[in-house]
Amino acid sequence: MTTILFILFAGLAIGCAIAMVSQSNPLYSAISLIGVFVALASLYVTLAAPFIAAVQVIVYAGAIMVLVIFVIMLLNVEHEEPRRKRLRFLVPAAIGMAAVLIGETAFILYSVQATESGVPRTVSNVGLTQSIGVGLFTQYLLPFEITSVLLLMAIVGAMSLARRNTILSSTARVVPGAQVLAMDIDPARAGKETVETETTAEAAHLLGVEFHSNQENGE
Amino acid sequence: MEPQLSWYLALSAILFTIGVVGVIIKRNVIAMFMCIELMLNAVNLTFIAFSSYFQDVTGQLFVFIVMTVAAAEAAVGLGIIITIFRNRETLDVDDASILKL
Q: Using one digit for the tens of pLDDT, what is the confidence trace for A144-202?
């Protein structure tokens, strides 16, 4: 019975993973990835880890993938742009690297086959919420607390990234290399052409906004 | 015949390889981000399989922490993606090459 479930969900996971990589539309990739997450959660249940399976569905398939799909919808990118010319030696190099990777994977599989043994099916409390909670708050309390600090840093980082730069005007776009999009200078010239400037101050002057250098007044 | 530990490890290796391939061949930064999530999940499957095999809860605790790191990565990574799109009007990673020599 467990074998049938393993084959079913492993096939589902691999199929969804291949579909995810082969899709050109990021939205379909995201939905295939949700399939992978659900199949892995089902495998976690057969491996006697019901708590992790529930967290997998709630956190991964729920929270993270909703965030990814939200960003895909927000940025509204349908398809990948056609592939441009690349360096000549990239494709042979990629094939060679893929051969090395497949060889390594095959070696790992071969080494694992040498120590063949089944997963024990004894009844235990491993994987229940209680044992995980006891482990988190006794032996692994320090990693748990460090994780909370990491989450706080992620919140602060995401907010500072999403905030618009207020030194320039809210519509100005100055990339770090001091390239100015032409549409910001003159709406009539809206397009892909850019104007190169030497410094950010010069770019700000082109945009017609005030720019205060950090060194001058310490802002 | 019960599923062997090696079956789970093989599935994990296959999923990880598909994730690596995706990161290499994809040029959309969101698709690359999702392939990284797939690689994290492949590693999680290894942790859970070993945890079940050795009857030790430590592997599941590590999976819990990996999931938290993935959530933090999603928040910061998607913030970076939105910033790139706002500055460049594209999600193609080949266009974000300003640090390249």
A: 999 999 999 999 998 888 776 555 555 555 555 444 454 455 555 455 455 666 666 66
- Give dist(CA B40, CA A65) in Å, integer: 14
Task: State the average pLDDT over residues A17-25.
Answer: 90
Query: Are the beta carbons of A68 and B98 separated by less than 8 Å?
Result: no
CATH top-level class of A1-78: mainly alpha
In whole angstroms, give the CA distance from residue B48 to residue B57. 9
- Residue A71 has its nearest CB partner, among B20, B24, B81, at B81
Domain presence at residue B58:
yes
Residue B99 lies in a domain: no
CATH of the domain at B41: 1.10.287.3510
Quickly list DSSP for chain A.
Answer: -HHHHHHHHHHHHHHHHHHHHH-SSHHHHHHHHHHHHHHHHHHHHHTT-HHHHHHIIIIIIIIIHHHHHHHHHHHT--SPPPPPP--TTHHHHHHHHHHHHHHHHHHHHHHHHHT--BPP----STTSHHHHHHHHHTTTHHHHHHHHHHHHHHHHHHHHHHSPPSSS-TT--B-TT-EEEHHHH-GGG-SS-EEE-SSHHHHHHHHT-----HHHH--
| Overall domain count for chain B | 1
Domain that holds residue B34: 26-88
Mean pLDDT, residues A96-107: 88
CB contact under 8 A, B20 and A101: yes
Q: How far apart are CA A160 and CA A155, in angstroms?
A: 9
Nearest chain B residue to A41 by CA distance is: B45
For chain B, which residues score pLDDT lower than 50? none
Question: Is residue B21, in this structure, part of any structural domain at all?
Answer: no
